[in-house]
Design a protein that fits this description.
Arc Repressor Mutant, subunit A; 2 domains; elongated; Tetracycline Repressor, domain 2
Length: about 190
């Protein structure tokens, strides 16, 4: 059960998630976030020590949600290839929903970025490990060949990011199919 403080923190994160993409990192003021959240600016500082803390908390929260979604897919009783496709879809949704925020990371020049980038990389490794574990599971079931599952999972994650990071005229479903076809069947003629 969420406490009142948890709800307030989530409200601040949602408000900041709207303001940062509109205004950019440098032009966003805590006053802007407070106005969007309909709270006083001082309330934000109860939860976040500075603007960088708030910004990275949004990304980390989104990555936690992605990880939870991937774990839910892993627990299903679907064939491994279906699970991998659903995981790529989850990665696509994450990139689409957070592409503007991810672009703003480059605007941050403080020491805070170095501390927080380590956390973001740790989140990335958790996500890649879930996908790698499913690839390994698929190999055990004879669906995929054996190999460097973590490398392949990282490549799938990067392919998803690349395919969905910039605006594209190709539908999400078609992009997901292109990525899964590439990894499941390759590009060489048989």
């Amino acid at each position: 059960m969420r406490t009142r403080n948890d709800k307030k923190k989530v409200s601040i994160l949602k408000a900041a998630g709207k303001v940062f993409p509109k205004k950019g990192f440098h032009k966003t003021l805590m006053d802007d976030v407070a106005r969007e959240a309909k709270i006083g600016k001082g309330t934000i500082y109860r939860y976040f020590s500075h603007k960088e803390d708030l910004f990275f908390s949004i990304l980390e929260n989104a990555m936690d949600e992605l990880y939870s979604r991937l774990m839910a897919v892993r627990k299903k009783q679907d064939p491994p290839e279906n699970k991998v496709e659903k995981m790529i879809e989850a990665l696509a949704d994450f990139v689409i929903e957070n592409r503007t925020l991810m672009n703003l990371v480059h605007e941050i020049e403080s020491k805070e970025i170095m501390k927080r980038v380590k956390k973001v990389k740790a989140h990335n490794q958790k996500v890649i490990q879930v996908l790698a574990d499913e690839l390994k599971n698929g190999a055990r079931e004879g669906k995929f060949k054996r190999g460097d599952y973590k490398l392949w999972a990282g490549m799938m994650a990067m392919a998803s990011r690349g395919a969905f990071h910039s605006q594209t005229t190709i539908s999400k479903g078609k992009n997901i199919k292109n990525i899964t076809d590439l990894f499941f069947y390759g590009i060489a003629k048989s």
